[in-house]
Every structure is written in C-alpha cells, then in structure tokens.
C-alpha cells in the first residue's frame, strides 16, 4: 500500500483529465487542450500511484514561466521567486490516505532547492475548511485574497517559506550537484515567438 510519486507519462493524460474533471467544485475543470498546455509547459508535473493505480497528480510552475493563470500573475506581482502549485487532485477514493501529503512533500523537496517560496490558492466559496486546515498544517499562510477573473471565484492566496532555500542558494547557486535523489526539472516547451 505504498505511495509512489513519479513524473507523468504522456499516455496518462486522458486519465488525468478525467480525474481532474471528476474532482468537484474545489478544482476548475479543464479540457484536453489545457491539460496539453500543462504537460508541455509545467516545470513540475508528477503523479501519485497507490497499489499500481493513478491516485492523484500535482502541477507546478516556476516564477520565471509564462504561465497564464490569473492567480499565478497575482503572486508574480508580489514575489520575485516562487514555485506555484497550479493544481493538485487526489482521487476521491484515496482522499485522507496520505496521497496529498506525499505529493506536497515531493513538490517541497523539488522547490526548496530552487525557490524561496511555494505559492498556491484555496478556493473559499466551496466549503474550504478542510483545504485551509491541510495547507495550514503544512506550513502555508494566507498572504491575501484574489477573485479570479472569468470564473468569479474568490481564493485565499497562500505562501510557504522554504527555510532550506537560502543555504542551498548560498552554497550551490544554480549548479546543484548531480545526485540521484535530486528531482530533475522537466524541460518545458518554449513558447513560440511571434513571427515563427
């Protein structure tokens, strides 16, 4: 009954789309084109497996990305460097079993070597107490609120400071050692330039 966190595979995108769109009102639905954008451009896109079955996923973007989310833009206006969690989804039958914590721990292991903060939002208009408690117990704090354009959803904008980052930055800069345990960043497809 162990949880395995690994990089997403392209052939899993249909299953991930179904998982996302069955998650309920706490997650915005998406279409195949949006998921493809995430697959092509996200810096962090990993899945959780439990007993060999897809149990959840987490998608993240570094602050230097050209991500088009209004919540990402809210953080970018206020913070120079951060890793943004665009979405995390856990299959309903796996909720409460540690899958979300495993995904967040894996994301933190990735981010703390590269960014001083992890940023995310929690929708406030859909019974958010469990999500707020989860994030608070994981070290996040609210740094503001944002009403998302085009969907009229109010979100608590949450930030977690990563205490390891200053030491890693001062010791290694942008040249992390080549160690097997260090999660390698995905190589997002560069956005097309105008005129090409």
From TrEMBL:
Q: Does the keyword Transferase apply?
A: yes
Which InterPro entries does the UniProt entry name for this protein? Acyl_CoA_acyltransferase, GNAT_dom, UCP028520
- Residues forming the N-acetyltransferase domain are 3-163
Q: Which UniProt keywords apply?
A: Transferase
Name any one Pfam family assigned in the record: Acetyltransf_1
What GO MF terms are annotated?
acyltransferase activity, transferring groups other than amino-acyl groups
Q: What is this protein called?
A: Acetyltransferase
Q: Give the species.
A: Stenotrophomonas koreensis
């Amino acid at each position: 009954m162990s949880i395995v966190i690994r990089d997403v595979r392209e052939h899993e995108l249909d299953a991930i789309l179904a998982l996302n769109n069955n998650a309920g009102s706490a997650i915005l639905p998406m279409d195949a084109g949006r998921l493809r954008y995430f697959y092509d451009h996200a810096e962090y896109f990993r899945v959780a497996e439990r007993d060999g079955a897809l149990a959840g996923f987490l998608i993240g973007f570094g602050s230097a990305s050209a991500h088009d989310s209004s919540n990402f833009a809210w953080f970018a206006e206020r913070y120079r460097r951060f890793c943004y969690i665009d979405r995390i989804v856990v299959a309903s039958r796996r909720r409460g079993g540690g899958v979300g914590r495993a995904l967040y721990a894996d994301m933190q292991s990735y981010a703390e070597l590269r960014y001083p903060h992890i940023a995310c939002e929690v929708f406030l208009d859909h019974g958010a107490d469990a999500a707020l408690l989860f994030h608070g117990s994981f070290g996040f704090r609210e740094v503001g609120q944002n009403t998302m354009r085009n969907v009229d959803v109010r979100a608590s904008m949450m930030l977690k400071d990563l205490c390891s980052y200053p030491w890693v930055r001062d010791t290694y800069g942008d040249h992390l050692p080549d160690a097997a345990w260090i999660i390698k960043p995905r190589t997002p497809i560069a956005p097309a330039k105008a005129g090409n």
